[in-house]
Amino acid sequence: MTPRLHDYLVAHGTPPDDVQQALIAETAALGRAAQMQIAPEQGAFMTMLTSVLGARDAIEIGTFTGYSALCIARGLVPGGRLLCCDVNESWTAIGQRHWARAGVADRIELRIGPALETLAALPAAAAFDLAFIDADKPNYQHYFEALLPRIRPGGLILVDNVLWSGLVVDESASDADTVAIRAFNDAVASDPRVEVVMLAIADGLTLIHPRR
Question: 97: how many CB neighbours lie within 10 A of its CB?
């Protein structure tokens, strides 16, 4: 995907609006960390998918500067809610300002702290139509296991970075994140509890549909 082709792709979908462009620019100023922000075409896809699902209750694990949360919140049905789990107050504060500018702040609840602790503290009856995992890679399997019982019939779990810049097929790559993503991809692909589709969008996005 060349830069020119990527620009064409974004322009021929629903491109980022002024608020999203401002959030992209502010995130870019963070330097190398900015690579954690999802791509604009992935954001548009997630807004559409949230809307098509008719999602009312959503959760994301890993919020960073809030672009994915903004996209999900925009796709929720009226009265819908998104629970964001993250550990970084400074990065998520950037998101909060842009959520307010976009008029979706009232749909989003941010909880600062380890996501597994946040999930464990939820009421037993708490359930979601959509979940998005985009946080520390060694915990992907743990997040998946914690979320799976809480997904309503017809709901989806989305998992980001599953291609990991192609390192998942590079046998010489043995860092902890790459090993963790490979293990997660293998585990979920063979899990009889779910149906799985891996999409080559941005850095790889897996859609997981629990079997009922």
Answer: 16
Residues 6+ apart with CB under 8 A from 207: 156, 157, 158, 196, 197, 198, 199
The string of pLDDT tens digits covering residues 120-168 is 999 999 999 999 999 999 999 999 999 999 999 999 999 999 999 999 9
Angstrom distance (rounded) from CA 152 to CA 209: 10
Q: How confident is residue 185, by pLDDT bands cut at 50, 70 and 90? A: very high
**Looking at residue 63, what is its pLDDT?**
98
Enter the tokens of residue 32. Answer: 């190398």
Q: For residue 157, what are its two tokens? A: 């779990």
Query: Based on C-alpha coordinates, what's the Rg of the chain?
Result: 16
Q: Which of 120, 117, 114, 167 is nearest to 136 (CA)?
A: 114
- Both tokens assigned to 43: 């954001």
- The domains found in the chain, sorted by start residue, are 3-210 (3.40.50.150)
Return the axis-axis angle of helices 40-53 and 3-11, rounded to nearest 10°: 30
- Identity of the amino acid at 95: G
Phi-psi region of 81 (alpha: psi -120 to 50; beta: other; left: phi over 0): beta
pLDDT-derived band at 212 (thresholds 50, 70, 90) equals confident
The dihedrals phi and psi of 175, each to the nearest 5 degrees, come to: -70, 160
